[in-house]
Amino acid sequence: MKRLSKDQKQQRADLVTRLNDAAEAVRAALAAVNAEIAGKLNSAIENYNLVASVVEAFRDEIVSEMEYYASDRSDRWQKSERGQRHEAWKQEWEGLDVTALDAIDKIDEPEMAHANEFESMRSQPG
Question: How confident is the model at residue 126, as a pLDDT?
Fold first, then answer.
């Protein structure tokens, strides 16, 4: 093959158009998804974080009561098997992770340079 035929050039042009149209569809879908993120998803995350903060306060209250209970006991009790089980139970509660979720800004547009690269391919040797 010495060069692209007239039909091949037309086919390439048609494919470039299809790629560009498909890229526009991706951009439109991405804009719609980002609007949903800004509205629904981040609102749900905010609500989740409010509930998580209530859970965190509850956890802290429980741990505080456990600490008070243990500190009111003798050193002998604290070193006993029951005291050790109580301490392990308290550490379990202290380890409960209720870190807030981060809001999501948006999904970035992927690079879609295929059409430009494809269109710039030479139709014959240099």
Answer: 75
